[in-house]
Design a protein that fits this description.
Blueprint lengths: L1 H15 L19 H4 L9 E5 L5 H8 L4 E6 L2 H10 L5 E5 L13 E7 L8 H11 E12 L6 E4 L2 E4 L7 E5 L9 E5 L2 H11 L1 E8 L20 H4 L5 E8 L13
Parallel strand pairs: 1-2, 1-4, 2-3, 4-5
Antiparallel strand pairs: 5-11, 6-7, 8-9, 10-11
Helix pairs in contact: 5-6
Length: about 260
């Protein structure tokens, strides 16, 4: 079943990838969400080895390259996305792989300073294995940062400006959509509660540094709000966070403390 979902999602992402060229990429964490310039979660990535999970068109890696990262690595399910990422990163030496994030494809272990995922981690069909793999890729003291739809956001519907809860947040599982980005491209997206993400991080060995239910970016302060029933809208974002952002750290496995406590 998981293999079937991965193949379906891969085929559909290959078809719709052109809609996402440069979208949902650093310094943005998601729709209307505070940016890296506002949150400063990555600090100074100069000389860091970084791995992008769900690297898409490569624009987040380009951002990291321009911030001085020493090595750029990326994984994405879509061949079309990987080809676009190669074009985006043509002036840099980037290691890019077309593969599911759930699978061990031989990426180096205990190697990366930072692993991150911008609006991609929620696609995984196996959250436990994905977080365990990410933990294995990181050096002790390394950071894992990801953003995704706020888990309650999928249940928020808007009608004539009235926002209400639709369906059950308590029920986890998956949702299949027959069309994606207006095209005949069926996708299946897992539906998880916030505590599932947090608890699986803890089980994988991570220490949670911060959990952010993002405010609207100050970049939108001057934009007049209009009532909108669209899935993502400034109207909704000013009333409920579109995006969940979590920063976690891999502890020093020998001492159980952060390495940077002694730096």
């Amino acid at each position: 079943m998981i293999v079937d979902i991965l193949k379906q999602n891969k085929d559909s992402w290959d078809k719709v990838a052109h809609h996402f060229n440069g979208i949902d990429a650093l310094p943005s964490f998601g729709p209307f969400t505070q940016s890296e310039e506002e949150l400063n979660l990555f600090g100074h990535p100069t000389n860091q080895k970084v791995l992008d999970i769900g690297c898409g068109s490569g624009h987040s890696l380009l951002y990291m390259a321009e911030k001085g990262a020493s090595e750029l690595w990326g994984v994405d399910l879509s061949e079309t996305q990987i080809e676009q990422a190669k074009e985006t990163l043509k002036d840099f030496a980037a290691q890019l792989y077309c593969a599911p994030m759930e699978q061990d494809i031989g990426l180096p272990k205990v190697y990366f300073d930072t692993v991150y995922s911008i609006y991609a981690i929620g696609w995984t069909t196996d959250l436990k294995s994905t977080f365990e793999l990410i933990y294995s890729y990181l050096k002790p003291g390394g950071n894992f940062i990801f953003s995704w739809d706020h888990p309650l956001y999928v249940h928020l519907k808007s009608q004539d400006g009235q926002i209400f809860l639709d369906g059950s947040y308590q029920d986890e599982g998956s949702i299949t959509y027959a069309r994606f980005k207006g095209e005949e491209a069926p996708v299946t997206i897992p539906k998880r509660k916030m505590n599932t993400y947090i608890n699986e991080l803890i089980k994988a060995g991570f220490t949670i540094e911060c959990v952010i239910e993002s405010d609207v970016s100050t970049n939108f302060d001057s934009i007049k709000e209009e009532v909108s029933d669209r899935y993502y809208s400034l109207y909704k974002a000013r009333r409920f966070p579109t995006t969940l952002i979590i920063k976690a750290k891999k502890m020093n496995e020998l001492t159980g403390v952060h390495l940077n406590n002694f730096s």
